[in-house]
Amino acid sequence: MTSIDYYEVLEIERSANNNEIKRSYKRLAFEYHPDRNPGDTEAEDKFKEINEAYQILSDPDKRARYDSFGHISSEGMFSDQDFGGGFNDIFGNLFEEVFNAGSRARPQRGRDLKYSLEITFDEAIEGTEKELKIPKHIFCPDCEGSGAAPGGEEVCMDCSGRGEIRYTQGFLAIKRACPACGGTGKRITKRCSNCRGEKLIRKEHNVKVKIPAGINNESRLRIRGEGEIGFYGGPEGDLYIEIYVEEHPLFKREAENLYCQVPISFVKAALGAEIEIPTPKGKSSIKIPPGTQSGQTFRLKGKGAPRLDGRGIGDLYIETNVEIPVKLNKKQKQILEDFSQACKEDNDPLSKRFFDKLNQLFSKQSENNQQDKP
């Protein structure tokens, strides 16, 4: 069992009187209170020791038993009742409540609300405005939020209308919101028929939301003061709108840039052509050079999505996908065969480079195999 000297804990002499004990306790309690030392476990443990020491030394009978028998623990001389639950009561309250700052029910901020909104790809690019119907609570208009029918209120007898209960604990004067009336100072004798005494009713509230141009999928907008109402004069909460953008059948988006695959015939790819392409603003066209390969990408500056910060517009990237015919008649086959015969090696540079590397690889392997033979 670890020995604790309560006089050392409170930093007082053994001859200290009650006033000296109280002064030292108040000074140390302020210094080590958890609300002044958030996240400091050592300060929290010290605060517990200080309160434990005060519970013993501030009581003449307990102090006499301690002076006679030395250190006492909950396993030895003192039981939980000797501490009178006072430490738990004190430690469980907020710092300002312990030291006479807490009283009536304080203003409470309303809860935040969340709403999921789905918009089209075009609306995300261009920006739009939506009017939403948000279900939220408001104070009952019949009783103006009191919860009572006309004449259905009386002064709370528990707190005499003050809205708070006061009591002393050691040298501390504790004030708490009255649990009987919730800190209002009044009690309901007859409930409002509209809200049934709940003080609130649920109602749809219209909210206009401006969606900025260039907003992306899973973005979140915050509208201040459009959440649930606050209590006791507290402010309303906020409304958070989560944006979900529908997928576009042609475009893929990465930040402010757009990407689109456009199929072209192998004839156009070989000869070059002007091809039609989509853009967020509608149809347009670009020229592709002769010999365009499948997967080749063309960049159109300023044809993407607007940046949310208003600093310009992203780009549109068009990727060509060369399409090979799947059905050929006799005449088409003959034309292609004649074309193949007429082609020179430099017509297919990628194929030539690939097969040159392949031949070099096999030739080197063959030489190595010959050298390994006995």
Q: Kindly give the count of domains.
A: 4
Would you count the extended β strands for me? Answer: 15
Strands across the major sheet, in which order?
10-11-15-14
Structure annotation, total helices: 10
What does the oligomeric state look like here?
single chain
Q: DSSP strand (E) fraction?
A: 25-35%
Question: Could you tell me how far the N terminus lies from the C terminus, measured between alpha carbons in angstroms?
Answer: 86 Å
Q: CATH architecture of the largest domain, please? A: Ribbon
CATH topological fold name of the largest domain? Chaperone, DNAj Protein, Chain A
Helical content stands at 25-40%
Summarize the structure.
By secondary structure, the chain is α+β, with helices and mostly antiparallel strands.
For the structure shown, list the relevant keywords.
Chaperone, DNAj Protein, Chain A; single chain; Helix Hairpins; HSP40/DNAj peptide-binding domain; alpha+beta; 4-stranded mixed beta sheet; 4 domains; 28% helix; 15 strands; 374 residues
